[in-house]
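Next comes the chain:
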Amino acid sequence: MAVGAVAQEIPTSEHTATVDDVCPMDSLPPLNKKEQKELRQNLDGYIDMWKTIGPSGKNPKLIFKDMDDERIVFEAKYELDDSSAQQLTSNYQWLRVSALYDATRRLGDIFGMAARLGMNAVVHANITLPSGNQEAFATFDNATLRRVIAMKNPTEAYIYADMITIRQKAPILIDDSMICTNVSFCNNLYTMNLHSIAADDPSVSSQFFWMIYNKWFIENNRFFSFMGLIGTTLRIVGTEEGNDNIVTLDYSPEQLLGTKPAIDVDLAGQYLAMAIGRNCPQTLDDSIGVWTHCSYDPTLKVVVMHYTVEELSILGVEGKEHEMKDYLLDIILYADGAEFLDLLINAEVGLELRWQSRTTGRKFNVTYTTDELMNYLAEE
């Protein structure tokens, strides 16, 4: 960050805030020489008015600095209280993009003509802090200028600024085992590339892993709600260390806002039942029966563990479903089942144990909701 730089001296190859490969803009229809000359004369006339009238608005004041055939340069001068100034200077990308966004809203004719002529825009932001003036500048290419002009609201500009920051800092460690390698924002689609460096677990499908992780990630990141407010879809492209699978999952604005679940419960339940069912069949302790298979019940929203047992085992517990609930979960927990129960909770599905007599077909079922599983683990 250079302080006190003169905007006209900024090289276009440095301090750039554009991301050319994010969302290429369509080429504008070419202007013939006559059209270009007339448009430039109109632009010069508007610039003369801007210089005559003086700064436009406040916070920021938009001050014309310079213009040539390639770019238009302006200063955005802020006068803020200390807390607001400190907050704004903590996010320089937002400072730059918001200044350009303000300029294209207040002086749309000027920047519209500049964009039409293929010009770039140089933003020279200036905030007065207790320690003196602090400046931040950026060169936006013509495609980015036109993109900012097309933005419908400040939230879109904020998301775009955040995207630029992430791309410049990537790869970024999100938590102990997750890295954000890239992001892009184009036409109300925000794409985030995540890579898990945790050891791949072959017993859990990549699809299920990313469904569970993304649900947690979305619910614990307030930034995604801003996307939902402006109708943006989030796309997460996930890869895992040691696994060639690429998983792509899309999340609607409703899911980002929390009005719809951030997980396909039925699909998650099917994957989880499939993963657990790989361990079947298994003989139960004391040879009272066999755990035969797992399934998913979309009506009850539960993963079902099916058992074939001796008739006496069912007669001994018949009518005692409530009394048996904690006891049966204790057995699952004792068999290293805490992670399994946690996955059920995260997938927002319950659990049902279905016993059936080997000889008579007599049944005994115990059903747990996600809340019951959550409360049980909390107590344990």
Observations:
- Residues 33-53 form the longest helix (21 residues).
- Residues 180 and 194 are 5 Å apart (CA to CA).
